[in-house]
Every structure is written in structure tokens, then in C-alpha cells.
Write a structure and sequence with these properties.
Two copies of one chain form a homodimer. Chain A is an alpha/beta fold. The first copy, chain A, contains 23 helices and five strands. The interface between A and B is large, with 90 and 89 residues.
């Protein structure tokens, strides 16, 4: 086990090794942009699928919709540019919303983000599989398996730790930018040259009329293009100094690239009247039309797949870090704060990987089925974050604050409207799941916080405990009860320990099979004569409840205020499968005692005397 | 939970309620014969399926094969009649083989029986579903689900206890005998009347030639007709006095009924040249031909289904009882001896139900796929039991013993040859699975016995332990180490208990996050001043191994021969889900200590001081 773990994940790192390596702008673009850049893949696909039912008339709406989404993108980018200025130590939506709008808004943003991170991973991986399956159609049969395989690879890489992940990102991002932008440029040039010889694509006849609903659904679906745009604002401290300036510039470059990729591909798709033949993504059909079914086409598809897989990685930095922040604020179990062997938040990584795997399996590895769940959470977080920024400017004021406030307010309003459009138009397709899960998570956070607060109150030490502790002195006259199952060495050793502690020792035998009692009592008299033995009847053959009743009875008849202990002879087998061959009564009794509340004021101490069996 | 359990299974019964109700011959026939009588259903089906490939020529072999199997049946019945005389207290194959042939043979028989019981349940249930699905073809789509449903019902009935099961059996058995025998008689009469008007059934052309292999395979498949014949010999003590005489008579009546049902149905099937149309069992096709597709036909099918389901019940009396006997002989975990709430061997019932469910699921609820695994185990047990009887007569002698020996020897030889035929001719179809599992089970039995013997040796108390135990006196100068996670009431109460036991108390804090140590030490000095506190560094952030190293270090520096204990402050949450919110370090430490062998001769006692959190 250990060897395998070290091979896959690497040997443990000492705590002292935690130090940040700052990123240059080029590195930071690679680290923060994969999710944002790659989201054009599924956004395009979803717009196409939403409009195709309305035929050629429907598809002619894709460019206008693309323009509207790009406008939204510019607005959101500007909004987050301001967040970077205002929260140079990292302004995740949770922090911005919580600081400015209060706990519930903050937790709603956090919950929306956690859901969003999980869906980003699931959608990116399944869209990545779709990209490569468009080139090699046989792979469509293994959608789920491939997506889970990529998920496993990323999970392992992330469990190995941050340093390794950083270096792996650069290649896919710049490879994708080069191949995809190159293809778009080539496509534009050839389109304009061959404009006259454009093959007269047959008009696609609609199966339903183009309605406002369909247009809104296409807009809602396309909004997924914006996912990932907030990543840089969370990670400002990772930039080289001057952090704020560098982060801001990188954000603007990223947004520009997103806009070019999105509007360029959607424009060309409409201009060339691309319609996929058979099972194929719309971007694959576009690339095939521009480049032909050759090696160049395969390269573009591979680069799409790679950036989508790497995009899933964004979730692996965001989710565990947010979970740790929430745990530190006592909204999630404190296990999420622990750094694993490789100084990463292993528990957060495990949770994300499990939830993503579950989504992939439940939705059969189909990104189109997952997308309706997706955008609503992301846009909810956008909206809360922008709204928080509005309050921030109102409070903080500063240079040009009314203008900044206006930009964020406009952003909040636009993303808020988009959230509503997404929630309503895609409600029945899956948005309801996110709308159900997000508030449930918030309720969960609040209950967890409540538990931690209650616990802290209960275990708080008021005043100095020293005197109480030490005054106990060493003058115990404690009572010890030793449950026994027979006459053997384990029992003898346990009794020996009991008599070391006190002279008030009593053995207790629960009589499950009355036929065996006589032999036991005879044995006892022969080998352990003098040690008091109580035989407890058990007409219903159960072990625990007659024993507990006996303990209560003993407490009631010895109201001496002394410590009462149960001392258990515990045979410990040498191999795991040997446990199956024993009744494990010691374990059952321990569990029962541990969960038994104090009775008549007696605190029950449990003493375990292990007797190790050799093989 | 409790209410649901009481509703389904009934409230617990006190141990005193164990008493046997003796069965009359009529009741006993109902109790012991369902498996034997119902096995004609799948035996007929398997003979037909084995021969149909060889066309009409093949099918014309079914009657001769049926006669051969009936002859074997008579022989085996006579053999078991003798077992009843020789082992009036119940002569299961395990006991007969073990007593006369030794441990390995006994365990082989036991293992073959356990496999056989499981397969009886699986095959009977799936064949029962096939019987009813032949009438209502839509049910073919739910073969597995229906078989599992029936399995669940029988399991519940058996968990309720023996009294209830006994009364339920009579109806299906006599209902089946009446309806099926009635149909056969009616069939014979009408066949002889309408002999001249017999529709000229087209000859079925063969897909392969009729070879000796096919004939042997058909014979092997048909041998499943004998399964269940041994049931009465296991249960002699359940009969009213004179037990032996009554059991013997009942066995002969049962064997006669088996022979009539088997030879009658197979003869009519061949005479009427029955070939099922579509998905239908051969017996269903026979019934449909004789009676027409009417209510009478449905009644016959329902009665077949009922007796098959009840036949599965035979396994529920045999399997748990044999498991308990094996456990008493230390070949199976002693949990199988425990009587459950309702005075039945619940653990054996659970194991049988799980194994049967697994078989049904793995083989898709198809009895035809299960049968090849089946006969080999049953016939192996027959053979070992008969062989054991040969030795028995040789030793015991008595009235006419050479004749009795000859009968059993002939029976052993015949079933032995049948075992070989079955094992070889159906090896690749599934018999290999049984032939693999049976010896593996025997190996498992022997390893379990070995473990119990080794354990008994290790824990045996030699001589009188009294002096050693009492001389310990109450003069302990024990050392107690208290692992702490912070400064709180749980820790304070634990320290208080520690000082009650000894003055040599030391608290130990494992420093997982060095940033928190300073605050802890300050708190400690303020609230628990005077209690020694060790801060144990943990560069790799693990809790257990630095703590264990510290304990070893303490032992090494205190070679005082005194008792060493670890005392754990244990916060016990009020609700199960609260456990997820705590690190459960006390549980982890307890587990690690329990499995740690003695170090440098120090026995490590574990003391648990629970601190109960309220909600």
C-alpha cells in the first residue's frame, strides 16, 4: 500500500516546505485561463443545440446571441477588474459577498461556487471527451469511462501537489491558443477568398418555430462561455509584484482572447452554415470544414481536448481552497483544513473527485445533459460578488468611486438578469437541481456552524481547572467491573490489571447459553477462586442490554461517589480475517458504553486491556 | 428500526421457548419433500434442452434416460432408507462421512452440501419464476427481480422462525401433488383415447447428430431430479415415534411419488412429441397440450411455481443447521451457533440468502445456466454418504449386514459414476465452478479450525491464576499519558480521572500545525498549570506515529516495570452525523494502540474517558 501510494502520489513533504512560487503574467495566464478559454467549446455546442430545432432561421440567431454574450463578457471582465483592485489579497465571491452582504449571501455564493466547481470539472471533462470522440467516433461508446479516466489522472496529479500541477498547464493552453486561433485566421482568409464558391448548403427546415423562448434558452446555454472568468480575481497573491497591476492586465488579455475565440468561432460557424453530420460537436464540424479531415484537424481536436481536461484542473485549485476557508470559518468539517502528505488539501480533492465522478456517471458522460445544471450556479456567484462590490464602493469610497460603483452595479444587474433567464428557461432541464442543492448546502453550512458553536460552549473551560484536577489526589476507591466470556489468560491478565487499580473488582458473566454456565462457574472456582463473579441472566440471548442493566444496578446500590469503570479483556487477533472468527464482544461493549450517557451522575470510564494473539 | 423489525420478523423469543413439535407422516412429507418432488421441473427441462439439438432422434432418448435416472433414484432411496435405520438421531452426509471416512471426507461432504443448498435455493426460485412466466410471458422480463422477491419473502419467513414455516408448507405440496398427478392421469387417459387422432407432429430436424456425449449430458442434467431425496434422513428426530419406522415409510412414499411424477411426465412428453413454442418450459408445454390454454393449465403452473418456491425453503432448514454444526466443530465462525431473536440461526440464514441472491444476479435469474453447477455437489455428497455407510456396516455389523453393505456399496458406486459423468460432461458449462469452490471451502474450514486451536492454546490458563491475580494488590505506581488536542473540559475531566489513578500523569500534544502551539501552551499555563505537558513535533502532520514513538520513548526511559496506560479524553457527539465534523482522533489512537504489540515488555492499557456532548 505504502509503496503504491508513494509511487502514485509521492512521499510525504514536511510542513516547512510550504512556500509560494509567484507567477509571471505568461505563467499566470496558463494557470488561470484554461477554464475560461475552453468554455467556448461547450458554449458554442449548446447554442447550436438550442437553435437547431428552429432550422436555418434559428441558426441565423447564433451570431446575434454570440454578440450579446460577448457584451456581457466585457461587462463582467470590467467588474472583476475592479474586484482585483479592491481585494488584492484574493477576492473570491464568498469573501466579497460575505464581507459586504452578510453571512447568508456569502454562504449562498460559496455554495454556488462549490456546485459550479464540481460542474466545471464534470462538463469540461465530458466536453473534452466529446472533442476527441468527434475525431475518433469509436470513442463515443466509452464517454463515461474516458471522462472518469481523465478525472482519475487529474486527481492524482493534484494529490501530488501544486508545484507539479503548475508546470503541466502551460503547454495545453498555448498549444490550444496557437492551433485554434490559427485555424480561425485561416478560416477567415479562405472564407473570404472562396466566398463566391461557397457550396450552397441546403436550407435546414425547422421542427419548431423560432420563439422568444428558444432564443432565451440559447442565450442561457451560451452564458456558459463566461465560466472561469472569475479565476484571476481569486488568485491575485499568486502574481509577481506588482500583483494588482499584473493580475488586472492578465484578466484583460484573457477576456480579449475569450471574446475573439467565442465571437470568431460562432461567426464563422454561422457564415459557413456549419451543421454537424452524424455524432460530432459543432466546433469539430467547423474545424473539419475549414481544415478538411486531415492531421491538422486532428491536432485542433486534440488541443481542444487537452485544454478542456486542464480546465477541469481549475476546480482542483478552487474547490479545496474554498472548502478549507469555509472549514476555517466553521461551515464545513475541520478535516478540510488538514494538509495532506503533499501539502495539499487532500480531503477537498477527494470530495471534488467523488462528486464529479458521481455527476459523470449519473449523466452518462454527456456534457449536454450536464450544462443546464451549470450556468445557474456560476451566474448566481457572479451576481452576488458584483452586488457585494457595489456595497464595497459605497463604504470604501476612494478615487472615482461613483463610476466604479456604477460599473459593478451594471454588472450585477446584467448577471442577475442572466441568472434569472438561465434559471427559468432551463429550469426543467436540470437547473432545478442546482437551485435545490445550493440552498440545501447553505442550510448544511449553518447547521455545521451551529454544531461547532454548541460544542465550543459545552467544552469551554471556565476559570482555572488546576485545583479541580489535582485535588483528585491518588486516593481512588474506584469500582471496576470486568465483563468476562470464559476462563482464559486474557481474563486473568485483565483481572490482574483491575486489582492493580483497586480492590473493588467484580467479574460479570452474561449467560447467553444457560447450558454452559455450570461448567464456567466450576472452572472459575478452580482457577480464579476468590474473584467475585456475577452471572447475569439473558433470556433473550443478547449481550449488551443485560450488562448495561447490571451496571446501572451496581451504580444504584453503591452510591459512593467513586469512579466507576468497566475493564474489558480484549483478545486482539493477529490478522484481519481472524476478526470474523470472533464475536468481538469487547468492541460491542465499548461502543455501547461510549454512547451511553451518564447514569445517575456516574461517569463511566472504559479500560481496555488488550491480549494479543499471535498467528 | 425496532418497530419495522418486529413487524417483519416478530418480537424476540426467550431461550426457554425452544421445543420441538413432532411431525406426523403427512406433515413430514409436506415438510421434507418439496425439494425432491419439485426437482422434476428442472430435470425434465434440462433433459429436453440437452437432447433437442439432436432433433427428434435425440428427443426419443428422453424416456430411456428417464428410466435410467428412475433406477438410480430407487437405488439412492434404498440407500438412504438404510441410513435412517443406522442414524436415527439424524444422519446428514457430513456426519456419516466424517464418522466413517474421516475429517477430510466429512468436510468435503459438508462443503458439497453447503454449495448444494445454495444452488437448490437459486435453481428452485428461478425455475419457479420460469413456471409462472411460461403462463404470463411478460414476466420473462423480470426473471431476476421476481426470483429475488421470492427469495426475500422466504428469508423473512425463515427469520420469523420454524413454527411459522412448518404450517406454510403443507398447502403447496399437496396442491401440487393433486394438480400435477391429476393432469398426468387425465393426460394418459385422453392420450390413449385420442391415440388415433394424434396430430402428426412434424419431425424435428437435428442441428447436431445424437452422440454418446449428448446422451451422457442429458443423463447428467436429468440427475438433478434426485436432489432433495436425502432430506428425510437428516430429519429423523422430527418425526413422531416410532421415528425410524415413520421416517422410513415417508421416504419410500416420497421416492414413489418422485418416480411417478418424473417417469410419467417424461413419458407423456415423449409420447405426445411435445416441443415448446416460443419461450416456455417443457412442463408448461406439456400441461398446455393436455389441458389447453385455460384456467386448469394456469392452476398447474401456479402449483409448480409454489412448490418450487417452497423447495427453496429446504435449504433454509438445512444450510443454517449444517453451518451451526460446522461452527460447533470449529470449522466455521462461532457466530453461526448463535440463535437469533426468534430462536433461528439468523447468521446462517443471512449467509444463505446473500449467496443465493448473488447466484441469481450473476446468472441473470436463468435456472438453465445454474443447473450445471448444481448436480455435481449433490452427487458428491450422495457418494460420500453412501461410502460412509459401507464402512458403517463393516464396523457395526448387525442383522443382515452384508446385504445392507451391498446395497450401500452399489448406491455409492452408482452415484460415484454419476458424479464423474456430471463433472466431466458439464465441466465447461459450470461444473468447474463447483469443483473449484468445494475444495476451497474445505481449505477454509481447515484454516478456521487451525485458528481456533491456536487461539485456545494461547489463552489456556495453566494452573491456578488466583495468586497471580490477587498478588497484584492495590499498590500501583502506574504511568499515565494523556494525549490532548487542546484546553477544554473534556481534557480537564480526563486529567482528573488520571490523577485519581496515579500521580505520574503526563499530557502529550502532537503539534500538527506549529502555528497553534504557542496559543495552546499559553492556555495550558493559564488553566492547567502544574500538569506536565509534552509538545511532540510532527513534521509530516500525522497524529499517530509521533505519538506512538513518544510512548516507546517514555517506556524506554522509565524501565520501572509498572503498568503503563494511555488515557484518552473522548468527545462523544450526540448524533451520528456529528462524527463527520470531528477528527475522531480518540478513535484513531485507540485503534492504533490496540493493534500495537507489546513493546519492550510493557503492556499498554487504554483508558477511555467519554465526554458526552449534548445536541
Amino acid at each position: 500500500m505504502h509503496i503504491l501510494r508513494n509511487l502514485l502520489i509521492g512521499s510525504p513533504l514536511p510542513t516547512g516546505d510550504t512556500k509560494e512560487t509567484r507567477l509571471s503574467k505568461v505563467q499566470a495566464l496558463a494557470a488561470f485561463s484554461p477554464d475560461a478559454l475552453s468554455s467556448i467549446a461547450y458554449a458554442n455546442q449548446e447554442i447550436f443545440l438550442a437553435l437547431v430545432a428552429a432550422g436555418s432561421a434559428g441558426l441565423s440567431m447564433s451570431f446575434p446571441i454570440g454578440v450579446a454574450i460577448t457584451a456581457l463578457l466585457v461587462l463582467v471582465a470590467l467588474s472583476y477588474y475592479q474586484t482585483i483592485q479592491a481585494y488584492p489579497s484574493g477576492g473570491g465571491s464568498y469573501i466579497v459577498a460575505r464581507t459586504n452582504l452578510g453571512k447568508t449571501a456569502g454562504l449562498t455564493a460559496a455554495s454556488a461556487l462549490l456546485v459550479g466547481y464540481t460542474l466545471t470539472a464534470a462538463v469540461s471533462l465530458t466536453a473534452g471527451v466529446a472533442a476527441i470522440a468527434s475525431s475518433f467516433p469509436i470513442l463515443w461508446n466509452y464517454q463515461t469511462e474516458l471522462a472518469l479516466f481523465f478525472l482519475g489522472v487529474i486527481t492524482l496529479i493534484n494529490l501530488r501537489g501544486a508545484r507539479e500541477t503548475g508546470t503541466l498547464m502551460g503547454f495545453p493552453v498555448y498549444f490550444f491558443l496557437a492551433s485554434f486561433l490559427g485555424m480561425l485566421v485561416f478560416g477567415f482568409i479562405t472564407s473570404f477568398i472562396t466566398r463566391s464558391t461557397l457550396p450552397g448548403t441546403a436550407l435546414l427546415s425547422p421542427t419548431r418555430p423560432l420563439t422568444a423562448i428558444i432564443t432565451l434558452q440559447a442565450f442561457a446555454a451560451g452564458c456558459t462561455a463566461l465560466t472561469g472568468i472569475e479565476a484571476i480575481s481569486n488568485g491575485v497573491p499568486a502574481f509577481k509584484t506588482p500583483e494588482v497591476k499584473n493580475a488586472g492586465k492578465t484578466l484583460l488579455v484573457m477576456a480579449l482572447l475569450m471574446a475573439i475565440l467565442f465571437i470568431g468561432s460562432i461567426g464563422l460557424t454561422q457564415y459557413l452554415r456549419i451543421i454537424p453530420q452524424g455524432q460530432e460537436t459543432i466546433l469539430s464540424a467547423l474545424a473539419r470544414r475549414i481544415l478538411g479531415s486531415n492531421m491538422l484537424y486532428v491536432i485542433v481536436q486534440v488541443s481542444s481536448m487537452l485544454i478542456l481536461v486542464v480546465a477541469a484542473n481549475t476546480s482542483y485549485s478552487g474547490f479545496p481552497r474554498l472548502a478549507a476557508i469555509l472549514a476555517r470559518d466553521q461551515f464545513l468539517p475541520n478535516q478540510f483544513i488538514q494538509l495532506g502528505d503533499r501539502l495539499v488539501y487532500s480531503n477537498g480533492i477527494f470530495l471534488l473527485a467523488s462528486a464529479t465522478a458521481l455527476l459523470i456517471i449519473l449523466f452518462g458522460g454527456d456534457s449536454h445533459a450536464l450544462v443546464p445544471l451549470f450556468a445557474v450556479g456560476v451566474f448566481l456567484a457572479f451576481t452576488l460578488s458584483q452586488a457585494g462590490m457595489v456595497i464595497h464602493w459605497q463604504r470604501a469610497k476612494g478615487h472615482h468611486w461613483p463610476l466604479k460603483l456604477a460599473i459593478n452595479a451594471f454588472g450585477a444587474a446584467a448577471t442577475g438578469v442572466a441568472t434569472l433567464i438561465i434559471a427559468i428557461s432551463r429550469f426543467t432541464e436540470g437547473a432545478w437541481i442546482s437551485l435545490l442543492v445550493i440552498p440545501l448546502l447553505v442550510l448544511g453550512f449553518l447547521r455545521i456552524e451551529d454544531h461547532y458553536k454548541t460544542t465550543a460552549r459545552q467544552i469551554a473551560l471556565k476559570g482555572n481547572a488546576k485545583s479541580a484536577v489535582r485535588s483528585a489526589a491518588t486516593s481512588s476507591d474506584m469500582r471496576v467491573i470486568v465483563p468476562v466470556s470464559g476462563v482464559h489468560r486474557g481474563v486473568a491478565e485483565a483481572l490482574q490489571v483491575a486489582y492493580l487499580l483497586t480492590s473493588r473488582v467484580k467479574a460479570a458473566y452474561v449467560e447467553i447459553d444457560p447450558d454452559q454456565t455450570e461448567a464456567l462457574v466450576r472452572q472459575w472456582a478452580k482457577k480464579l477462586d476468590g474473584v467475585p463473579l456475577e452471572v447475569i441472566p439473558s433470556p433473550y440471548r443478547s449481550l449488551i442490554s443485560p450488562l448495561l442493566d447490571f451496571l446501572d444496578f451496581e451504580d444504584a446500590s453503591n452510591r459512593d461517589g467513586q469512579l466507576a469503570a468497566v475493564l474489558l479483556p480484549d483478545l486482539v487477533p493477529a490478522k484481519w480475517w481472524h476478526y470474523l472468527l470472533h464475536n468481538n464482544s469487547a468492541r460491542l461493549i465499548k461502543n455501547a458504553l461510549l454512547h451511553r450517557r451518564r447514569h445517575q451522575g456516574y461517569q463511566r470510564v472504559i479500560i481496555d486491556v488488550p491480549f494479543h494473539l499471535s498467528d
